[in-house]
Amino acid sequence: MSIEILTEKCTGCGACARVCPGSLIKTGERGVFIERPERCWGCASCLKECPAEAILLYLGADIGGLGGRMSVRREGTRLRWRVEKPDGTARTITTDAKQSNRY
Amino acid sequence: MGGRQLTVKRLSADFLIIGGGTAGCGAALSFCGVSGGSVLIIEKANIERSGCLAAGVNALNAYILPGQTPEDYADYVRRDAEYIIREDLVLTMAEGLNRAARRLEELGLTILKDADGNYAARGKRNIKINGENIKPLLAGAVRKAPRIAVLERAAAIGYIVRDGRVLGVYAIGTDEPVLYAVRAKAVLCATGGAAGLYRPNNPGFSRHKMWYPPFNTGAGYAMGIRAGAEMTTFEMRFIALRCKDTIAPTGTLAQGVGAKQVNALGEAYEEKYGVTTSQRVHGTARENAEGRGPCYLRTVGITPDQDEELYRAYLNMSPSQTLKWIESGLAPSAQNVEIEGTEPYIVGGHTASGYWVDTDRETTIGRLFAAGDVAGGCPQKYVTGALAEGEIAARSALKYMHDAWPSLSAAETDALRHGLEEILNRAPAADTEDSLEAEMQAVMDEYAGGIGAGYAFSEASLAAAARKIRDIESRSEKLAAKDMRELVYIFELRDRLTVCASVIAQLAARRETRWHSFAENTDYPEKSGQWLKFVNSRLENGEIRIILRDLVKRGDRYEH
What we know:
The structure holds 2 protein chains of 2 kinds.
Chain A: E1 2-5, H1 15-19, E2 25-28, E3 31-34, H2 45-49, E4 55-58, E5 69-75, E6 78-84, E7 90-96
Antiparallel strand pairs in A: 1-4, 2-3, 5-6, 6-7
Chain B: E1 7-18, H1 22-34, E2 39-42, E3 59-60, H2 70-80, H3 87-95, H4 97-107, E4 110-111, E5 121-122, E6 126-130, H5 134-144, E7 148-151, E8 154-162, E9 165-173, E10 178-189, H6 219-226, E11 231-232, E12 241-243, H7 251-256, E13 261-262, H8 270-273, H9 277-289, E14 295-297, H10 304-315, H11 319-328, E15 337-341, E16 354-355, E17 368-370, H12 382-397, H13 410-425, H14 433-447, E18 456-457, H15 459-476, H16 484-509, E19 520-521, E20 533-540, E21 543-550
């Protein structure tokens, strides 16, 4: 369980580094980076903060991860979750903070 | 000579709160509602997402629905914990649950309502929400409150105690080379429980993909133990039943779409073992041990619409599960969801582990309060219970607000600073905090009832565990840190080791098996009426002393 930060998309704003509950994201010369990816809890807090969709969540191979990647775009109260599947196709699911879980 | 040096910063607050999670943020807001005094929250990371609610939560699991009473909730908690609860604590918490839910709604939490405007029920005690933003809502309210200061990126390392009362706390910067000496008229410990004591389900790269926050290292327990506080019921470990690999919640599948637990033969096995929290875990462990695993939640046959609802529900609390369903192309309607028990945790929001407190939530150390996962005797708190306890503690602390400021010893602070600088400047040891953590987790797994031992232990295995943990503790004293982050990691390891030693001692002291899996004692495999009492412990002159205490009856108040 961990994240990948796309250096080419990262604007270096540091929002992710501020919010990480494990303080695992650091600021370097070429934007931010996760210093010890094996310490990541997988909470996705950083994905939701990132204004550039530059952070991707993935499942480690040791827990059956197949190479899919998840990113998030925030639009008001909505979060648009994009999952890129291993075959290159993608699907988007929208959640809304104003809508309760049905279950 | 040069070398790494620490700057000392001195701070004061009327009410000092250690840990800005649910209980800590809630207590800070409650205190502001009843006092004009100042509050300081010390937080290791950033309160926006720290604690248990980082990814969100699927429901408010503790709510008194119409037709039910706080007494009914206490009855349920007592049954589920096999009677080892503090009735005074559970009832006073239960009385605050609905107020806590209303406060969350006022902060902006979305709670589902029925046609009559009542909160929509999920089962007997839950209400349905969108809990994705629950922690940012709490944090936002804290940041707006005029008298609450938040010190982030600072890790508490020890209480300042004199004559049986707390005067404040020492903390270190997690990045900046600072030693904070903080004095206060009252202190609330709200650091959360302890993860990472036992070898996790997936000890490799994904070792932090666990149920409880891996950043909750038991610091609050450990600081209390070292200061001589009495602790209770560490032998009632918590083991969660989770979706395999992602360690995502199972309750949404069980309660949301009615998925039954089934073994590899397709047999529903829950009824065979009982439906308390520990029995559900135990049933799954037994089915696996007896060759009828793997076990699943039977989701095959649910509708495509239910698939989509589940995707969204999990995104709001545990997004890795949705990622797994989608990247594999196997929706829950197409494949049953495999389940497994996690490694054991010590967490007083779910079981009765934690500080031994009086009815006002004051610990056995004067002016030190506890709320949330560090506070013992009161299981099944969840979010609303943690807020309710924070509120009780905040109100109780008011009685000390007219007292004079304590004065801290500059000599003591200086000695601590020198000790820390020595760790920062010493030559690297043969061990690292990572290697010792892995050793500790292996010892706890094998000898103190981890996953590898089927959660079971014996007096002999616990004696071996105690010996091995002591050895690791002595080697941890020699670890070197090259920066503040490594210094924090060393303290986290030491805190875990301190908690491990108390867990082992308390597991050994309860000579029965009251809760399968949570405390599976192979020397005493049956439950015994003689053990309808609390197992407590206290560190005295470096030795863990066991104290047995009677249960507290409903309606009674408890004073130390």
